[in-house]
Amino acid sequence: NVAESTIADGQRELGLREGFDIGLEMSGRPEAMRDMVANMTHGGRIAMLGLPAEEFAVDWARIVTSMITIKGIYGREMFETWYAMSVLLEGGLDLAPVITGRYGFRDFEAAFDDAASGLGGKVILDWTA
């Protein structure tokens, strides 16, 4: 959640000195993309799955000189990304920290308000509640 911590904080917690090799940007938020670019290793790859609400500036000099590849993912190719994510999950990746809201489906308006606020991470609607 970019409202509470930075990618650099996560990098330090993981003991990474050179940055991340792969980044998945799913929020569409400009500050998340800028933070990700600033914390990628040389030759890193970023997959953009989130749709920004409007255009925003990025540090193209950093992207070019660090040889960062940015790829937009939409439609069919999302399935390949989901498969790669399932491999990470089966390997023990814990997504609990990014889930900041859980709502029963009847509380969908509150869930959408939470998601639209930009203050949290991912919001889950529980269809069994």
**CATH homology-level superfamily of the largest domain:** NAD(P)-binding Rossmann-like Domain
* Topology-level CATH name of the largest domain: Rossmann fold
Helix fraction, binned, reads 25-40%
CATH hierarchy: architecture of the largest domain: 3-Layer(aba) Sandwich
Which structural class fits the helix and strand makeup? alpha/beta
Instruction: State the CATH class of the largest domain.
Output: Alpha Beta
- How many structural domains can be distinguished in the coordinates? 2
Number of alpha- plus pi-helical segments = 5
SS strand fraction: 15-25%
- Strand adjacency order, main sheet: 1-2-3
What is the radius of gyration computed over CA atoms, rounded to a whole number of angstroms? Answer: 16 Å
First-residue to last-residue Cα separation: 26 Å
For the biggest sheet, the summary is:
3 strands, parallel
Mean pLDDT: 88
What is the global morphology?
globular
N to C succession of SSEs: HEHEHEHEHE
Uncertain segments of ≥5 residues (pLDDT<50)? none
Total strand segments: 5
Could you characterize the architecture of this molecule?
By secondary structure, this protein is α/β, with parallel strands linked by helices. It folds into two domains: 93 residues, NAD(P)-binding Rossmann-like Domain (Rossmann fold); 36 residues, no CATH class. The protein is 36% helix and 23% strand. The strands form two sheets. Strands 1-2-3 form a three-stranded parallel beta sheet, with helices on one face. It has a two-stranded parallel ribbon with strand order 4-5. The protein is globular, with a radius of gyration of 16 Å.
